[in-house]
Amino acid sequence: MVLNTVLVALDGSDITERVIQTLDNLVLSPDTKVVLCHVIPTPEEDIEQPADRPQSDSSRTSYLQLEKQLQTYQSRLSFKSELEVVSGDPAAEIICLANIYKAELILIGSRGLTGIKKIVQGSVSSQVMEEANCSVLVVKPDKN
To answer: Tell me, what's the pLDDT at 61?
Structure first.
């Protein structure tokens, strides 16, 4: 099966490097488009705020730092790639981007949350696996 588009969800956590390494290990066609994305989680209190509210300098700085980080990963790739930095619910936004780009595969890391942390924080990778319209490859943390 030839993959035309792969969406790679990166969150800046320790698992990010393993996700990029897994992407490097995939055998992709030279024509495959890779979309590196990062979702800035929307704090609950911001959800009710007007959309036309001016962005604070700190959120602009954060966005630029994330974009620069993605560009660093992008420069290491040998495939055509695009960058997406969006804000919202991480699982919902990843699924939305996968649908927009018509991705055949989503590559995402799992932070390996267990117990109460998994219940309270939820698992973005589990939600993406359940709700995505395409295949999902979950990269697990190194057990060493």
So the answer is: 66
Please return the burial class of 17, using the count of CB atoms within 10 Å of its CB with bins 0-12, 13-18 and 19+. middle
Q: What is the Cα–Cα distance from 95 to 113, expressed in whole angstroms?
A: 21
Residues in the chain: 144
Residue of 137, 134, 142 whose CA lies nearest to 4: 134
Cα 94 to Cα 17, 87, 106: the distances in Å are 19, 10, 8
Question: Which pair of tokens denotes residue 120?
Answer: 């309270």
For the stretch 5-17, pLDDT in tens is 999 999 888 889 9
Q: Are 19 and 111 in contact (CB under 8 A)?
A: no
pLDDT at 2: 81
**In a 3-state reduction of DSSP, which class is residue 98?**
helix
Q: How far apart are CA 68 and CA 75, in angstroms?
A: 11
Is pLDDT at 71 greater than 80 in this prediction? yes
- How many angstroms separate the CA atoms of 49 and 75, rounded? 36
pTM reported for the whole predicted model: 0.82
Alpha-carbon 15 to chain mean position:
11
Structure tokens at 81: 């790639």
